[in-house]
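Q&A log
Question type: sequence-to-structure
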Amino acid sequence: MHLGRWTTGPVTMWKGVMVAMWLACALPALAETLSIDGDSGQFRLNDRIEYRLDGTQPLEQVVQQEPWQAKSDDRVLNLGFTDQSVWIRTSLTIPAPLRQQWFLVIPYPLLEEVDLFILPDGQLPASYHTSREKAENQRKQAHSYEVALPLPRDLSGQVTLVLRASSATSLQVPVELWSEDRLLNHFSRESLYWGIYFGILAAMATYNLFLFLSIRDSAYGYYVLYIGSISLLMLCISGAGSAWIWSGEPLLTRYALPTSTALVSLFAVMFARSFLKWEEISYRWERSLGITAGLAGILIVYTWLDPTNGALFAGLLGTLVIVLVISVGLAALRDGVASARYFVLAWAAFAVGAALYLLSVFNLLPVNALTNHAMQAGSAAEVLLLSFALAHRIKDERARKLAALQRHQLAENQIRDLEIQSLEQAMHDPVTNLPNTSMLNQQLQTVISREQTVALVLVHYPQVKDIASSMGRHLAEEMFCQLTKKLNHTLAMLGGAICLETRQPAYIAIPEFGSAAFIVELEHLKGRLRPYVEQVVGHHEVSFHTVRLPVLMNLHCGVAIFPEHGDSTEILYQHASAARDNSAASKVPVQVYSEDISGFARRRLELLTALPSAIEAGELELYLQPQMTDMGRELVGAEVLLRWHSPRFGPVPPWEIIEIAENSGLMDLLSRYVVAQSWRTMQALRERHLDITCSINLSVQNLTDRHFIPDALEGIREHGIPMDRVIFEVTETSMMHNMESVIGSLLLIAESGCRIALDDFGTGYSSLAYLSRLPIHELKIDRCFISQMCSNRNDLEIVKNTLKLARTLNLESVAEGVEDQSTVAKLDELGCHRLQGYLFAKPMPVDEFCRWALRQTADEGAGKGR
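Response status: OK
Response body:
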């Protein structure tokens, strides 16, 4: 068979078939030689070679040594990873000189060093020697992606071809003879394939680089770097790098291959970490990716020190990276990351291609077209699928941003609604939904700026808070809503008031719970202001719906007029508040502001300032009012009362002292002063042989203070006063504040041996059911019932029933406000235990009381003697 140009016509194809059939039949007989005398453009020599591993001896010694290992199958010689060189020889018969250039071709571009020797008739010396480096430098070969060593044009006869090959990677040596036409056709075809491949990679890299520069997402940056490292790896594997970029420098592949493999591993891991971000990612996956990226970085440095072992380690690390990123992708897919499905498919395609290629490299699969191009196909599929994954990620990001925009718009709408709601709440009272002080101030400021003559009216209903304390906040709110509704309706019917809000409409505002305010336009008011206000705020009746009881609400009302009483909103409020407070003090329902009222307000402020220093200076005195029994003939006790004769203000009423102390936070200081003076007073009474009880009033603040009662009881023990001689008086209303805390304090008093009296019984809102829970020893009947009991049948019945209740509950009874003998006789008849009032004596200083008590005791003794 003669060696000639490869043609593609039908005749040539039949010639090729005939040659192949002839070779198949003749192979057993050819043994070690192959006759080349045809027109075929390619001959495979893999089944006609002998080889031996020996990288140190020269050609002369190697040729003479025996035995050589013969290879009879057509599989590619694959010796795996080895640092030795391999010698290969084969014999050819060339009947006539070659008519065109022929090449000894090794289709494995990763061989670094290849030397070709031609021995005529198999005898030394060699008639021809060339090498890969020499052939590439002298440009005696066409561009090729394989190792192509040119044969002499005058070569003929019986010749032996001897090859020496070495590689830092897997040592594969496929041996073939190609004509120049065959080599050029193969090069053109491979260039087309690789051009398409690298074109796809370049397009993907350019597109994603643009995306990275646009949106600054690290995933796109790592993907571009990954494509670059894949491109470098494929330049090494395909031979395109040796053919086009570093032609004549085959040793560069030794370093470029493991380095590019390590870079692929590094950027694959970094891309996976950036791409697969989801909230539920396991710490183990995150840590594994980080450690693998670190190993890849170390391997990049190591390959430049030891490229041979670096290539082996790079292959192992690449396998680990593929398994790891697929596992992480599956975990993300399981957690609902939609774009992870393209990610997993991409890496699965690359894994299949890489596995086929690496298995052939490690001599576990035969070397063929499939295994040689598996990495190329797998990486191309991976790049495309990862681009789909990134495109899907953009879609997801767009959907997330759209959803975030919708959420933002929804949040803005909610914020706007909340702002409107907050504005409504800021301008309205939460209980009644009527305007509050803010809206009232705006309207008042408007009318002041117009210089209209108006009156600001402030109304306070003290019973509302008392009901809240005794019967619950819900019931008090219900009653207050009834009250404000009636008040608003009255203003709407009578006219004269300025409408604060037209939507409802609303004529009143709610400064605080239990209070109301409105503005009267005096220019359009028919009649006088005071009667009009009295008609508006007159006693409104509201009902307890739960118990169906009507209640008449008391009130305190203050009025200030613009511009007569002030030219600003603040001053009008100040003066209207002062008038309201004066209304409470003077028991006048409606009070119009005057300079006298301003003086009263200033006096209250001055009293507030002076009270602490007065307590410290001892200006406050204790007075005692006797409590009698046996028709008023026997002294059994006294009530401790407080008096303040101020050098600056004169006599200050006790109710004003208590009110100032309670409203200014001085109640604890005042009460501790009173009890301390009371123990000294009782000690003085006992020294004068007046063994009587003393009743001391406590406020609600004392009962809810967990330190006050223990300290008071300790003071009794320190002064050596018998506990049963001390009576603590508590009002019915005070016990309705913080009921549990009050009951705890009362139990502590009762357990100590002291007695407890319920003062002003019948004037509050407490339920009789509470009496069963309270450790009460005495009931004190208020003076409002006692003073009229002889002339008012209703008051008499109240007193009778109260005394009957006391007997039923085994409680002592005390009547306050006894001022005539007929009342004494009636109370004695009804069985009242103690009597207290001006009939017997007014409250007296301690020394005067002692003198009075001693005289009373002497008179009592004289009466008994007679």
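Response note: Residues 6 and 12 are 8 Å apart (CA to CA).
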